[in-house]
């Protein structure tokens, strides 16, 4: 029962991820694109964390943490670039 619920949840997250990526390509401004990509990163991390129990590998949790930290630094860099025009 719970496995089918988690599978349904993963498919739902993938569907939302596709919609968010489409939004990031057609976003009217750069700030909208940054927010969409940041949301996509959050969805990818959720997918990785939902896949961790199936693989029974604890390394997935470390990968998710590094991915979130890298996305945070990248978001700060892009926002600084948008604000000041330089990194």
Mean pLDDT: 88
Give the amount of beta strand, in percent.
Answer: under 5%
Which series of helices and strands comes N to C?
HHH
Give the strand tally: 0
Classify the helix fraction into a percent range: over 70%
**What's the story with the biggest beta sheet?**
none
Query: Radius of gyration, rounded?
Result: 15 Å
- Distance between termini? 50 Å
How many domains, in number, for the residues?
A: 1
Described by the principal axes of the CA atoms, the overall outline is flat
Q: Low-confidence runs (pLDDT<50, min 5 residues)?
A: none
Write the layout of secondary structure elements.
Layout lengths: L1 H25 L3 H26 L3 H26 L3
Helix pairs in contact: 1-2, 2-3
What does this structure look like?
The chain has 87 residues and is mainly alpha-helical. It has one domain (2-84). Helix content is 89%, strand content 0%. The chain contains three helices and no strands. It has helices spanning 2-26, 30-55, 59-84. Helix 1 packs antiparallel against helix 2 (30-55). The termini are far apart.
Question: Features of this protein?
Answer:
87 residues, mainly alpha, 3 helices, flat
Summarize the structure.
Helix 1 (2-26) runs antiparallel to helix 2 and helix 2 runs antiparallel to helix 3.
